[in-house]
């Protein structure tokens, strides 16, 4: 895909999307972190990291989540490097889920996000589809996200449609604009993914995606 930088004379306004108070979001994360904890690790400007991370020159805590469980799982585990075998199935290695958990959180207040879900949304943000559909070279997409933040000081995050779990919403929230206690954990929906019950649940959730994870070894 052809990548384009932000226009130098932009005078537009990105479309806004209201994520209402009480909305449930799902997140796959390390057990070392709380379900509602933002990531404050600054990513390199050009290499590694996620699509819309904060960096040293544009620092902000960030929080990736999805509106559905399967989308949160897909965004973490079903990336392009996970290939189908000759029978049309994919296998997730145990190392990929070790120490991982899926959690649910609920928004405590309305959040205003920049919408990047449709063609008109992207056009209003002077962005092309590569911004949300490009591969894993995220340096350019981070640069556009930082430019959008600068041009939309009201924006508390971004919302776009997953290209892995097609058409389903994914979000990133900006911790410096969301305020404290924006996300509340829903403890009864937290599940470790690397024990026997978690692996059973994960394999059932990913069965429609022709994907499974190896069972934990019995001692």
Describe this structure in words.
The chain is globular and about 60 Å long. It has 7 helices and 11 strands. A 5-stranded mixed beta sheet has the order 1-6-7-8-3. Strands 2, 5, 9 and 10 form a 4-stranded antiparallel beta sheet that branches. Strands 4-11 form a two-stranded parallel ribbon. By secondary structure, it is an alpha+beta fold. It starts with 15 loop residues before the first strand and ends in a 6-residue tail after the last strand. The mean pLDDT is 91. The protein has helices spanning 69-77, 94-97, 119-124, 130-133, 139-151, 175-178, 196-206; strands at 16-19, 24-30, 62-66, 90-92, 100-107, 111-116, 157-161, 169-174, 183-185, 191-192, 211-213. It has one domain (20-213). A hairpin with a 7-residue loop joins strand 7 (157-161) and strand 8.
Topology:
Blueprint: E1 16-19, E2 24-30, E3 62-66, H1 69-77, E4 90-92, H2 94-97, E5 100-107, E6 111-116, H3 119-124, H4 130-133, H5 139-151, E7 157-161, E8 169-174, H6 175-178, E9 183-185, E10 191-192, H7 196-206, E11 211-213
Parallel strand pairs: 4-11, 6-7
Antiparallel strand pairs: 1-6, 2-5, 3-8, 5-9, 5-10, 7-8
């Amino acid at each position: 895909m052809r990548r384009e930088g932000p226009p130098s004379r932009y005078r537009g306004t990105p479309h806004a999307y209201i994520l209402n108070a009480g909305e449930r979001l799902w997140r796959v994360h390390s057990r070392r972190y709380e379900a509602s904890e933002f990531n404050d690790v600054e990513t390199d400007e050009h290499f590694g990291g996620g699509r819309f991370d904060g960096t040293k020159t544009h620092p902000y805590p960030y929080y990736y989540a999805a509106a559905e469980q399967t989308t949160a799982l897909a965004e973490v585990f079903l990336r392009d490097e996970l290939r189908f075998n000759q029978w049309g199935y994919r296998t997730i290695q145990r190392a990929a889920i070790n120490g991982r958990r899926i959690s649910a959180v609920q928004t405590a207040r309305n959040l205003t996000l920049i919408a990047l879900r449709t063609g008109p949304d992207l056009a209003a943000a002077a962005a092309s589809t590569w911004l949300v559909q490009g591969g894993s070279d995220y340096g350019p997409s981070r640069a556009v996200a930082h430019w959008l933040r600068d041009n939309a000081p009201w924006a508390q995050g971004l919302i776009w449609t997953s290209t892995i779990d097609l058409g389903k919403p994914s979000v990133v929230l900006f911790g410096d604009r969301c305020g404290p206690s924006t996300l509340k954990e829903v403890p009864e929906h937290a599940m470790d993914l690397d024990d026997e019950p978690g692996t059973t649940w994960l394999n059932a959730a990913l069965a429609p995606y022709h994907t499974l994870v190896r069972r934990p070894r019995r001692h």
